[in-house]
UniProtKB/TrEMBL annotation:
The chain crosses the membrane at residues 6-25, 37-56, 62-83, 95-113, 119-136, 156-175, 187-212. InterPro entries: CheY-like_superfamily, HATPase_C_sf, HATPase_dom, His_kinase_dom, HisK_dim/P_dom, HisK_dim/P_sf, PAS-like_dom_sf, PAS_4. It comes from Hydrogenophaga taeniospiralis CCUG 15921. This is histidine kinase. The keyword Transmembrane helix applies. Gene3D superfamilies: 1.10.287.130, 3.40.50.2300, Histidine kinase-like ATPase, C-terminal domain, PAS domain.
Length: 787
């Protein structure tokens, strides 16, 4: 029997070592699983208890009984601690260690004080039963519905152990007593064998629990990974950017909705390969619009270099005549663990609308640059016109005075006539520049474009070769426009003359057509859409077409630039079309040009239609002394002729001495000495008394000293320091009844309004003929004062 007991203890020791090694390996391999570490400690205490039993009966009783029994109880306690750790329940080591210490003390007392084997066995059974009971409680709480098979097996094994310990605690008191007074049991080897089997079962069960926990963790990890993958797919699918994943063989692995929408693919449509730039139905374009070579395609560059490609602007065009889609592309490789290429990630953002906005912005910038160029030239023209008009006025006035001083048959009169003609041509050039810069006065009133067209065509017919067919068409019911008829006629003559030149002496056809464009018509320029919607009227369209040489795009983009001309040197000034543009825009209109080289050109002019309820403005040409509706006089009307009649050479007789007291006294102010000298001679020759100044303050001081001494103040408008309007305000404050006229080389609506508000009687155009200037003076001076 003793041999059998030792053999069983040796086997048990081997089983304890096996269990300890197995649990230790699991704790090192799977540290995230709670329990194997404590089960390793439990195996060590079980082995210690087996060693203690093996030393009986030769060993000391303290080791064989006290330590062995306490080690077995500690083994069960740490099995329970490991179980709670596995189940994720809290555990406290201090109570466990205190209970183990109490068991050890009890074994010492039952060995040294009261040597009772039955009491020691009962203490061991009670401690083991308590541990089994709390283990069953934890299993029931964790798995109340018995869903985990491994825990249920552990539960039944624990129940079996609990029943065996209760039977041992009770049966030990009924064992026979030996002659030495000890109770002996022939079933001890059987009990040791049963406990060894219990250790083996628990090894299997706990190992299964570890495997179950690893499986659960793996399932949770896969579930989390699946959720993350689903979230990633949903995120990529709902991205506004396109995402395409290609395999190294150019087959498509995945594509999101934005990419399908960009490429025009349906949800179920299968496109397994990347669009081939060389295929007839796919075209990849560079940023400049040229075809993209294959080696520049981002996908090919990633395959060739293995490096990412960033910020490539790519145009995609599918099908003949399809609209090009533009994208900002990025591509980068996705490698496997050993560095091999797995996929090529291709991402892009649709920038088609941005590209269109950029092109539109560039067009607007070009228009702005053109507008600024026109504005700068207009400002320059206004500044130059002041001095140039003074020069022309001096030339014309002195030539007229010199002609009056010569007898009718004098040879010098012909030279003076040529001087006057050249000065008048210069005056017309200045007027064209002012028309371009919109710095000339306009006599707006409701006019019928058909009447102006008929008059312009009759004038143009005389200068048109007989082989050119001149056609005019006027749609019935076309409304009037609010315009200056002289300037509209100038526009039609300029366009007609350009059309004749475009035919280059060949037979052809020039057509003038006038019709109406309703407010909602899509062909209506944007400049007139808003004004037409506000006023509730459409536009009058004037089309001038020819079948001449036409223009290419480069020429068409420059036709409205000042001094740009395609004619030979000396054949054109390059101001015709800029003048047309200035006049049309001054009337609130717009111009569109359609031209094809070799097929002809069509100019389409759009003017806002005059509202039917708007009354016609009655204006009287200032040259004949008409007054405006506000009581002020209007500026002189410009005639369209290039060669007005020459003034007569009738001389003014000298004034008698006794009439000097009745002379009207004219105060003339100008910063140009030459013009002051001319005006003085001109007016004195007609019997006026003239006082001239070139300094504004001196002129104001003269009126302040003698407010009633002057019958008319004629002042230049554009002078340094104080303008003519400032002088007029100061003088009228001193002498309110004194007539005041302002002369200017360019007259705007704003200038006329300010002049009327300041009390100025009339605004005079400085380059008018001498007779017109003298007529204004004669009309504005006060009647002779009574003696």
């Amino acid at each position: 029997m003793q041999l059998d007991l030792l053999t069983i203890l040796a086997l048990r020791l081997c089983v304890d070592g096996l269990a300890t090694a197995a649990f230790f390996a699991q704790s090192r391999r799977h540290p995230s699983v709670g329990g194997p570490g404590w089960w390793t400690v439990s195996g060590l205490f079980s082995a210690l208890g087996s060693v203690g039993l093996g030393l009986r009966p030769d060993g000391p009783e303290l080791l064989t009984f006290g330590v062995a029994n306490t080690a077995f109880v500690a083994s069960g306690a740490f099995l329970w601690v490991g179980l709670r750790s596995y189940l994720g329940q809290p555990y406290a080591l201090r109570p466990v260690l205190a209970a183990l210490l109490a068991v050890f003390v009890g074994n010492l007392l039952l060995t040294s004080v009261w040597d009772s084997m039955a009491a020691r066995q009962a203490l061991f059974s009670v401690a083991g039963g308590v541990i089994a009971g709390v283990a069953l409680r934890d299993i029931r709480r964790f798995d109340p519905f018995h869903r985990t098979l491994e825990l249920q097996v552990l539960r039944w094994v624990t129940w079996f152990k609990l029943v065996a310990l209760i039977g041992l605690a009770v049966g030990v008191w009924f064992l026979p007593v030996s002659p030495t007074g000890e109770r002996t049991s022939p079933a001890v080897p059987v009990l040791l064998l049963a406990t060894m089997i219990d250790v083996l079962l628990r090894l299997v069960i706990f190992s299964s629990l570890v495997t179950l926990r690893l499986q659960q963790q793996g399932d949770r990890a896969r579930q989390v990974l699946q959720i993350r993958e689903a979230d990633s797919r949903a995120l990529i699918e709902n991205l506004g950017a396109g995402v395409m994943v290609f395999r190294p063989d150019q087959t498509l692995a995945s594509v999101n909705t934005a990419a399908r929408r960009f490429l025009g693919w349906s949800e179920c449509e299968a496109h397994s390969a990347m669009p081939d730039p060389l295929a007839p139905d796919w075209r990849l374009l560079r940023e400049d619009g040229r075809p993209m070579p294959r080696h520049e395609v981002p996908f090919e560059r990633v395959l060739a270099t293995g490096q990412p490609v960033a910020d490539v602007i790519l145009g995609v065009q599918s099908g003949d005549g399809a609209q090009t889609q533009w994208a900002l592309c990025n591509a980068y490789p996705e490698n496997d663990a050993i560095g091999g290429l797995r996929h090529v990630m291709f991402t892009f953002v649709d920038i088609t609308s941005l590209r269109r906005a950029q092109w539109h912005q560039q067009a607007l910038e070009q228009q702005l640059a053109q507008s600024q160029k026109m504005e700068a030239l207009g400002t320059l023209a206004g500044g130059v016109a002041h001095d140039f008009n003074n020069i022309l006025a001096a030339i014309l006035g002195n030539a007229d005075l010199a002609r009056q001083d010569l007898p009718p048959g004098a040879p010098a009169r012909e030279s003076l006539h040529e001087i006057s003609a050249a000065a008048r041509r210069g005056r017309e050039l200045v007027r064209q520049v002012l028309a371009f810069s919109r710095q000339q006065p306009m006599q707006r009133k409701p006019v019928c474009v058909g009447d102006i067209l008929a008059e312009s065509c009759s004038l143009l017919r005389a200068a048109t070769p007989s082989q050119v067919q001149l056609v005019q068409s006027f749609a019935t019911g076309t409304p009037d426009i609010q315009a200056d008829p002289t300037q509209i006629g100038q526009v039609l003559l300029n366009l007609g003359t350009n059309a004749v030149h475009a035919l280059k002496g060949q037979p052809g056809r020039i057509e003038f057509r006038v019709d109406t464009v309703p407010p909602g018509d899509p062909s209506l320029p944007a400049e007139l859409v808003r004004s037409g919607a506000v006023r509730g009227v459409g536009a009058v369209r004037v089309m001038v077409s020819d079948d001449g040489c036409g223009m290419d795009a480069a020429t068409r983009n420059r036709i409205f630039e000042p001094f740009f001309t395609t004619k030979a040197v000396g054949s054109g000034t390059g101001l015709g079309l800029p003048v047309v543009l200035g006049i049309v825009q001054a009337h609130g209109g717009a111009i569109q040009v359609d031209s094809v080289p070799g097929e002809g050109t069509t100019f389409m002019l759009y003017f806002p239609a005059a509202p039917h309820t708007e009354p016609a403005l009655q204006t009287t040409p200032a040259a004949s002394g008409g007054s405006g509706p506000d009581g002020g006089t209007m500026a002189p009307e410009h005639r369209g002729d290039s060669e007005p009649p020459l003034p007569s050479s009738v001389e003014i007789p000298a004034m008698a001495d006794d009439l000097i007291s009745d002379q009207r006294h004219i105060l003339y102010l100008d910063d140009d000495d030459t013009l002051v000298f001319l005006v003085r001679r001109l007016l004195e020759r007609r019997g006026y008394k003239v006082t001239t100044f070139t300094d504004q303050k001196l002129a104001i001081d003269a009126v302040r000293e003698q407010p009633a001494a002057f019958d008319l103040l004629m002042t230049d408008y554009n002078m340094p320091g104080m303008s003519g309007l400032d002088v007029a305000r100061s003088v009228l404050a001193l002498s309110p009844n004194l007539p005041v006229a302002v002369a200017s080389g360019y007259i705007t609506d704003e200038l006329q309004a300010e002049a009327v508000a300041a009390g100025v009687r009339e605004v005079v155009f400085k380059t008018d003929a001498v007779e017109a200037f003298c007529e204004v003076v004669a009309r504005l001076v006060s009647p002779p004062r009574p003696a």
